[in-house]
């Protein structure tokens, strides 16, 4: 039930933002478990590879301008589960090592609002090699107010003017989740759309996600002439909305703009923003737009106003790169707030090749289509899409059953490609708490391919990672026993047979095998 009591707030000061903050601080890394908060679309290997190509292009551009001594700092805002940073660094290492050319050094700084996330990244097994190389660091960062970066590993503070190279800022699903102003345009006048909030009953007993799910919002317009005054820092953009729009609600990213301005102060050379979001850069989207609806996923998100970001920084001499076509799921942009941005040809070309021509949005649209048709796909189609997605673990899990069904007719070279894909996938797998067991599925596919050494390796990993021995299925022990027999590791085979019979005392095949070997 909803209380009758209502409270009125300026939209950017409404309690929904504090509730969102509380949700992430309470959940920590668990917020992304099993996609409670979506992370795949902005963190998969394909989008990470596209980002790494743009970053690599930027490093090439700085090298061509003879800026190779000072490190380039890459700051990821709201790094969340940490998966994007991991995949970007993996790909960036590959590009650097493959090219073998002189580049400036780089460091990657993952940031988040919740300190628990920062501490979790510090201990994550997949990130240890980057930490040891001195390439990866972490910082707690509040996008609404912080002006410095306090690096956890180095123990240093990055303050105004400390960065000698342009700052690279990565912001995925970031601008849609921080406070925004809500404006209304009518007859050339600017209004703020205040929000009336009706709270759930017994709110004190509810978790932040439950409150957000039950909260009720209603909007009312309030005339706000201060947006039309010359002193307002984003007056030129507001003037565009006054001239072009009518009866339209605008989510205005004042907090996002000031966050970028504060980050810009850290560098002596400007910044490059690489960002992906449910965000609109075309003015037409905002025509006659209705008040926003909260998109719920544990917390909530809104549409990011990329049009405002583009307008503000282009007026300051930046070059903004957004695809000329409409996006379907995720909009990826790049803003070069630099002196002479046209000189950064490698960065701009990377955007054209890996975002505009075919990018993360097109890939995700294809993946949605493929996900519904995996059962009718052939092995070559599965392998091709798996390669396109950077040998992603999620796609392998979805397609493992179909792969198994196609193995009897598979050619030897296809079997070898599957084996190679599994090796690449596992070497770049970022462990999160998910509902699937990747090692188990990999081991079972390899078992059906009669690659017993490799199958044994992954099945034993599956057992090691299982916290509750009672949850291990008997099939795992049976397959391991067969692998060991085939590899002539008889004692190990007998061990796994006995483990199997502890779970299933009447397992006929296991009893027969055990009896035969004991005799």
Automatic annotation (TrEMBL):
SUPFAM superfamilies: S-adenosyl-L-methionine-dependent methyltransferases (SSF53335), TPR-like (SSF48452). TPR repeats lie at residues 474-507. It comes from Paenibacillus polygoni. Keywords: Repeat, TPR repeat. This is Tetratricopeptide repeat protein. InterPro entries: NDUFAF7_sf, SAM-dependent_MTases_sf, TPR-like_helical_dom_sf, TPR_2, TPR_rpt.
């Amino acid at each position: 039930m909803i209380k009758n009591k209502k409270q009125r707030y300026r939209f950017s000061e409404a309690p929904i933002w504090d509730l969102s903050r509380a949700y992430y601080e309470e959940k920590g890394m668990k917020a992304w478990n099993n996609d409670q908060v979506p992370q795949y679309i902005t963190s998969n290997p394909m989008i990470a590879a596209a980002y790494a190509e743009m970053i690599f292009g930027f490093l090439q551009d700085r090298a061509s301008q003879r800026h190779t001594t000072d490190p380039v700092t890459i700051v990821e805002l709201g790094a969340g589960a940490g998966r994007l940073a991991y995949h970007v660094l993996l790909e960036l290492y590959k590009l650097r090592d493959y090219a073998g050319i002189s580049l400036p050094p780089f460091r990657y700084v993952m940031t988040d609002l919740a300190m628990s996330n920062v501490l979790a990244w510090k201990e994550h097994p997949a990130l240890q090699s980057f930490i040891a190389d001195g390439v990866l660091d972490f910082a707690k960062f509040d996008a609404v107010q912080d002006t410095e970066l306090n690096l956890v590993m180095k123990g240093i503070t990055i303050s105004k003017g400390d960065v000698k190279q342009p700052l690279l800022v990565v912001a995925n699903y970031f601008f849609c989740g921080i406070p925004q102003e809500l404006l209304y345009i009518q007859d050339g006048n600017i209004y703020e759309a205040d929000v009336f909030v009706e709270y759930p009953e017994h709110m004190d007993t509810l978790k932040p996600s439950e409150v957000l799910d039950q909260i009720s919002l209603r909007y009312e317009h309030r005339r706000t002439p201060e947006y039309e005054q010359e002193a307002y820092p984003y007056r030129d953009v507001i003037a565009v909305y006054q001239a072009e729009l009518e009866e339209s609600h605008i989510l205005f990213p004042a907090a996002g703009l000031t966050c970028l301005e504060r980050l810009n102060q850290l560098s002596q050379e400007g910044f490059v923003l690489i960002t992906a979001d449910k965000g609109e850069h075309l003015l037409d989207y905002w025509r006659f737009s209705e008040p926003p609806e909260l998109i719920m996923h544990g917390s909530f998100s809104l549409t990011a106003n990329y049009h405002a970001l583009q307008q503000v920084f282009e007026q300051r001499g930046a070059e903004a790169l957004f695809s000329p076509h409409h996006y379907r799921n995720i909009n990826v942009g790049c803003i070069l707030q630099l002196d002479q941005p046209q000189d950064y040809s490698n960065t701009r070309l990377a955007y054209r090749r890996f975002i505009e021509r075919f990018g993360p949005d097109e890939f995700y649209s294809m993946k949605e289509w493929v996900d519904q048709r995996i059962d009718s796909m052939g092995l070559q189609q599965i392998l091709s899409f798996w390669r396109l997605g950077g040998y992603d673990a999620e796609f392998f899990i979805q397609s493992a059953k179909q792969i198994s069904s196609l193995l009897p007719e598979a050619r030897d070279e296809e079997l070898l490609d599957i084996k190679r894909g599994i090796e690449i996938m596992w070497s770049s797998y970022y462990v999160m708490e998910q509902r699937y067991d990747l090692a188990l599925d990999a081991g079972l596919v390899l078992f059906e391919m009669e690659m017993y050494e490799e199958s044994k390796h992954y099945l034993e990993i599956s057992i090691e990672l299982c916290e509750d021995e009672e949850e291990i299925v008997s099939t795992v022990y049976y397959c391991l026993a067969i692998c060991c027999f085939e590899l002539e590791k008889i004692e190990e085979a007998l061990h796994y047979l006995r483990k199997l019979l502890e779970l299933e005392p009447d397992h006929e095949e296991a009893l027969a095998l055990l009896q035969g070997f004991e005799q």
